[in-house]
Known about the structure:
This protein is α/β, with parallel strands linked by helices. It contains 17 helices and 27 strands.
Amino acid sequence: xxxxxxxxxxSWLAFNRRVLEEAQDxxxxxxxxxxxxxxxxxxxxxxxxxxxxxxxxxxxxxxxVPNYVGDPRADLAVVRAHMRSxxxxxxxxxxxxxxxxxxxxxxxxxxxTQWSEIDREAVRRLYLxxxxxxxxxxxxxxxxxxxxxxxxxxxxxxxxxAEKGGAMRHALVxxxxxxxxxxxxxxxxRWSLTDEIVEAHLGxxxxxxxxxxxCRFRLTRDGTLDIDEEETSDLLSEIEQELSSxxxxxxVRLELADGAxxxxxxxxxxxxxxxxxxxxAVDVVLDLTLLFGLGDRVQGEALRDAPLTVVRYPSxxxxxxxxxxxxEGEFILHHPYQSFAPVVELAQRAAADPAVLAIxxxxxxxxxxxxxxxxxxxxARAGKQVTVLIELKARFDEAANIRWARRLEEAGxxxxxxxxxxxVHAKLLMIIRRESDGxxxxxxxxxxxxxxxxARLYTDLSYFTCNxxxxxxxxxxxxxxxxxSEPPHWERLAVAPLTLRSSFxxxxxxxxxxxxxxxxxxxxxxxxxLVDFAIxxxxxxxxxxxxxxxxxxxxxxxxRAGVKGLSETIxxxxxxxxxxxxxxIYYFANQxxxxxxxxxxxxxxxxxxxNLDRRVECLVRIEDETLQERLLGLLDIAxxxxxxxxxxxxxxxxxxxxxxxxxxxxxxxxxxxxxxxxHAQAKPLARKSGPRFRPVVRPKV
Length: 701
């Protein structure tokens, strides 16, 4: 980090270390601690596939980043050191804390060196019956070049010598995909791993040869796609072709299991052209993402978080006619504390409702068996006009989105694959319905994806409305996405890459002007990442003008908080805990006069350059005072948290808060659960539905 900004990669690794702290926290239930270790590995995999190759390319001179802040070569060395430290500490947590704790509840991973004779016989039979038939030994020599190994797969490299003499040989064996856990005989809870079983029985694959040494390893490749959107005539086919190249990407990390044969490692490094700095010797289980499946094998309610009390709002009775409920008054749902089911059911009711004329929706990431997409398919088959913008370039979801796109097209929906040069990240659903007194638009705008699975794990917001101003804006945005219309005047939305950045800058500067005029200045923002230099500079200037600023940033943050003369009035906190903090809420007080209205908004966008300049994003200003109060109440709870919150110091280091001795502990999970219950019990306010728009038709003759 320099005096003004924190390196974004170092900031991301610091975020992953905060995730690791949850695994290290003995107050966290045991299986949840194991899950956090798996999340650390999964997060680091994505970092190595996406961010790390870019930094290496900048150092190598094969890629340039305009206005890069810092020394790329020095940054790369720091990032590598942080990665290694993170992996070491993760392994230490597993070995010294989680393994003994699992053993205490009767769950043990038994390594090959610890197998009893009974274990060995059981493992041998399983190997011969189920594993050996699907294994393919791959020799490597001048006639058989080094094969293409699956990205993030587990493999075994072998050093061989013919029993009758001859030159030393090398070979490779890929471990079958699927669950790695194999139950051992005896007491329940004894497990071994398929990769260890394969390595222990290598001799059966090479009759006539002696196994001199072996090494279990895992390879991570550059996962970025190289797509020329301007030149391609078929984006879907182009992405399909590029997806296969992701598995062929340049190797960027080699992970080695404990006990690896030194000569085999030397041969592997040379064959893969991986520098020593990118080789990670792991002295515990290779690839701890396997711990995602541990919960299916270990029983005990005390080992897990208590089930979340998910509130159903509106009630099933109120939601029997969702369109009538929305006409009664707009409302916001807070997931996962309030069920995501109303979002799914709105689409399903729209598909079946003969009064619905058309449905338009954006999709970025959806579940593999998405009920929302199925509803859109049913609507198209029923003859409704269904338009879906499905973002094929959603990283690591490209293949799933291509499958859904084809199914939607087969059903008769009009599918748009995205925009050339931009990812469409806005979360929008518009239903157009004919009613007795005209046509009305019903809208859902969200901060998170239309994914019914992650909606149980991510904190997000859903906004339901039939407000005409919002409807005009959303309709205009869909017209821009599917056609060539000129950008309209936005009434309630701010849209990237058109007006969102300028709106944020204007709102920040207005608070600074008010602070300079002695009228106060206040900004609260909750989002995922802050890595845009221009926004950081605006916040620094506002702080120096006297604006009080609270930022709740889950992940990366390049801003330095609380630095004298630079950011004294800026406070940055990060909430890491049971759920992934994903909603984006923005508040600008605008206390110019007694009648001035604040800006209270929810959005799909973070304060990142990609969100503001290279994506289509949507922010909606919430004008209803009751809904404004609710969003500000959620922010107040986040700022009061003293159990899951970490606060950034001027040195960029996050320190976890501890509840003061005379002050009660405040947990966002507990407080937001109570808030969701209270919200569901409150009676909805009767509101006027506002003006309707009516089509002009020719009178009957």
